[in-house]
Amino acid sequence: MRPEILTLLIPLPPLLAFGLIVLFTNRSNRLSHSVAIGAMLLSWALAMAVFFLAVTTPHLGEHPIELSFPWLPTGTTSLSLGVLIDPLSAATLFFVAWTCLAIFVYSVGYHNFGQRREAHDRAGLPPHGGGLEPMYARFFAFISLFAFGMLTLVVSDNLLLLFVGWEIMGLCSYLLIGFWFGKDSAKKAMVKAFMTTRIGDVFMLLGLAYLYSATGTLNYRAILANEEVLHHLATTPAFLGLSIAGACGILLFMGTVGKSAQFPLHVWLPDAMEGPTPVSAMIHAATMVSAGVYLTLRIFPLLSAGWEEGGALTPAMVVVSSIGAFTALFAATIAVAQNDIKRVLAYSTISQLGYMIAAVGIGAFVAGAFHLITHAFFKALLFLGSGSVIHGMEHGVAATSADAAHAVPGQGGPAGVHKVKAHVDPQDMLNMGGLRSKMPRTFWTFLVGGFALAGFPLITAGFWSKDEIFAEAFAGGRLVVFATLALAALLTAFYTMRQITLTFLGQPRTEAAGHAHESKWTMTLPLIVLAVFAVAAGWVGIPHDFPLIGGLLPNWMHDFVGGTLLEHPHPIEFSPIPLLTSIAVSLLGLLGGWLVYRNVKAGAPDPLVRALGPVHTLLHRKYYFDELYDRFVVSPAYWLAESFTYLFLDRKLIDGFLHGVAEVAGRVGAFLRGYIDLPIVNGAGDLVGEGVKRAGRSGRIIQTGRVQGYLVVGVAFVAVLLSYVLLVRP
Amino acid sequence: MIPLSWYLTLSALLFSVGVFGVLARRNAIGILMGIELMLNAVNLNLVAFWRYLTPTAIAGQVFTLIVFAVAASEAAVGLALIISIYRRRSTIAADEINLMKW
Count of CB atoms within 10 A of residue A547's CB? Predict the structure, then answer.
């Protein structure tokens, strides 16, 4: 079959699965997850076929797999739909297909398939104590639709179809974050995520419209691989000293800021941890947030239009790189002070996305794409690993609280006494410890993922991609960005080791942690697969002139993905400074994390609390961003909606006006009825009726009913007539 | 030859007697007989006009024959009705047959 057709088919099986599950199979859990996983497997196989076709095609950048057909005629032109596999989308397709498949399989175990459904579990609440998830089939329907959105986005050949996939994911993210809608926090988080990303999406839509009006098309190849169009866009001024290319680039980048949770729209992502863990991995590691970075990589020619390699950055690139670098550091500092295992990973995701954005912003296209791919693998691994940990902890909590059902019903939680078993938070890392021996497979895979995240030298994928970013930043002379990212990398290594140490090393700090046990194979198998990638995905991008091992494997990443761009980027000169920095921050951070946290006792606070004092509080409260937004955005919005729009505008002005009109109309009506309708119109009508009645009553007298009487009249009349005719006329 | 006006005068007298009968009699048979007189007065007119004005045409005679037929059937139906009423109501006074009056 032709590769274009194969590509076109990739997103469809999950959509079909969604329809099937929602309409037909939702009664049967086994059938539903079989349909979903089967469909995903089919998509995966198609994606792999297309990927290998793409990899073996020479000069794919110049001659991509492409298919386009008109969809929506608009006047003389028409919007078209189509698929495009160029090196960037091929690489993205590869990791999206793998991580999605891993997550689908993992979900089976995570939602306790095979267990009985407990009678006290309600739909909309997480099941307690290992019962089957009540909305099991629905979950698979949602993630199927989600996978459809992501695959559509990746194979799309134009920004419009990308936006369609983008919004489908936005909807699914909303539904999945609020999957346990019985929890108040989940309800709030789903709305928050939706609204926050919506802000970015509105700007993105503006950018799309602007770009369309400027070029008359939204096709990637027609805009981004067309030197004339790019030159025209780069030289035509738009506003604020920006060229059209820069303005469109920044507007589209705003979409990324929302979707990839960059500062200042980062607030939704940590709250999105309310969803089930596979959702976190899917949305926040592998797919949706990656989509934001993917978009930035896509529009890189637009952002960098007019930029010479080695020259000054364009304004759009300055914006992108500063937001990225700032977010990388900013989120890393917050992650240090979080205790919830998933929240740490959430902030870590924001930080790592910042890395990629910063890389794109300084022109390191390949490095950004490389980090996107490696990050997707190891972060999905970490999220799924943390889900496995939480799962194990929940079993432990259920096991221990069953024993202690009639013990002291105290106030548990992270700040309380940890011996009270009733309310041990299974996500708080301070409640864990010593899980290494209880959950060995989870531990080792988590370790691999964590080391990849920290950039442990040479063996992990994260090292190679991060090192690439450092090298590019250093070689390009972006020392501020370089320093910021290096500091962020130090913090990354630190909080990663903190997480590993608190969770897996030492002794169990609660009885729940002591009773935790390893998860089922459906959960650990995806972990192992992803762990392999978390290591191996780095080998495809080893620079040629790296000491000792450079050149052993071809630098596939650079040669292949770099081909997406019109001008193939030059490989940079090897320099020991970024390499040493990278190794140093990684090892120092890991060591620091281990040293500080190896001896945390049960019930003891975080050692950093004493060391940092108020700064720790500031970090723990996430720089008070939620409070800030609440005070300056949410509250005014509520005020606007409630007091101004509802009570004043709607109730007073509009309703008042309407009530006034109604009052006047009522009075006019009463006047018309009282003085015109009743006396004149009705009077006239009644008069006619009465008159006819009276006339009839009078005339009835002569109607005797005697035929002979009538005949007399007739004869008399004829006689009169005759006498007139005969006697008077002649 | 007897002039036409004599026939017409006789016919008028005959018709007037019939009209009087119809108007003044209470007895339904009397009224029926009055009607017969009026019809015969008309017949007389028809025949007279035919004989004096258009003796070659046949229309006058045909009309007369049709009137005979109508008169005969009318008498038959009328008498049947009257007998029927008499059997039920034991009267044939026209003003007492008021079953369908309001």
Answer: 9
A29 and A136 Cβ atoms separated by less than 8 Å: yes
Give the Cα separation of A514 and A510 in Å (integer): 7
CB contact under 8 Å between A715 and B98, yes or no, is no
Nearest to A708 among B23, B98, B102 (CB): B23
- Among partner residues A706, A711, A712, which is closest to B95 by beta-carbon distance? A706
Per-residue pLDDT tens digits for B21-31: 998 888 989 99
Contacts of A705 in chain B (CB under 8 A): 98, 101-102
pLDDT reported for residue A589: 87
DSSP state, residue A83:
E
What does residue A11 show for φ and ψ, rounded to 5 degrees?
-75, -15
Q: d(Cα A714, Cα A158) in Å, to the nearest integer?
A: 99
Task: Report residue B27: phi and psi, to 5°.
Answer: -70, 125
Per residue in A271-326, pLDDT tens?
888 888 888 777 777 788 888 899 998 888 888 877 776 677 788 888 888 999 99
Amino acid at A298: R
pLDDT at residue A634 is higher than 80: yes
* ipTM confidence: 0.77
Domain range holding B80? 4-96
Give Cβ neighbours of residue A74 (< 8 Å, ≥ 6 apart). none
How would you class B71 by CB atoms within 10 Å of its CB: exposed for 0-12, middle for 13-18, buried for 19 or more? middle
Report the CATH number at residue B12. 1.10.287.3510
Contact A541, A364 (CB under 8 A): no
Enter the tokens of residue A185: 């926090």
A706 contacts on B by Cβ (under 8 Å): 94-95
Contact A707 B94 (CB under 8 A): yes
Which residues from chain A sit within 8 angstroms of residue B31, using beta carbons? Answer: 708
CA distance B82 to B97: 10
B98 touches chain A (CB under 8 A): yes
Neighbour tally for A572: CB within 10 Å: 20
Task: For residue A103, give the DSSP letter.
Answer: H
Does any CB of chain B come closer than 8 Å to the CB of residue A123? no
| Amino acid letter, A9 | L
Query: Mean pLDDT of all residues in chain A?
Result: 83
Classify each residue of A717-730 as buried b or exposed e, where b means 16 or more C-beta atoms within 10 Å of its C-beta. eeeeeeeeeeeeee
Question: Using the 8-state DSSP alphabet, how is residue A156 labeled?
Answer: B
CB A624 within 8 A of CB A448: no
Q: What is the DSSP string of A352-379?
A: HHHHHHHHHHTT-HHHHHHHHHHHHHHH
Is the four-CA dihedral A430, A434, A439, A440 of positive or negative sign? positive
Q: Which helix (H) or strand (E) holds A77?
A: strand A77-85
Structure tokens at B30: 């009397």
Q: What is the pLDDT of residue B34?
A: 92
| Total residue count of chain B as it appears in this document | 102
Is the pLDDT assigned to residue A416 strictly greater than 60?
A: no
Residue B22 forms part of a structural domain: yes
Q: Is residue B101 part of a domain?
A: no
Does residue A591 register a pLDDT over 90? no
Please tell me the total count of domains within chain B. 1
User: How many residues belong to chain A?
Assistant: 730
Question: For residue A316, which of A351, A356, A353, A363 has the smallest C-alpha distance?
Answer: A363
**Which residue shows structure tokens 């469909």?**
A39
Q: What is the pLDDT of residue A454?
A: 86
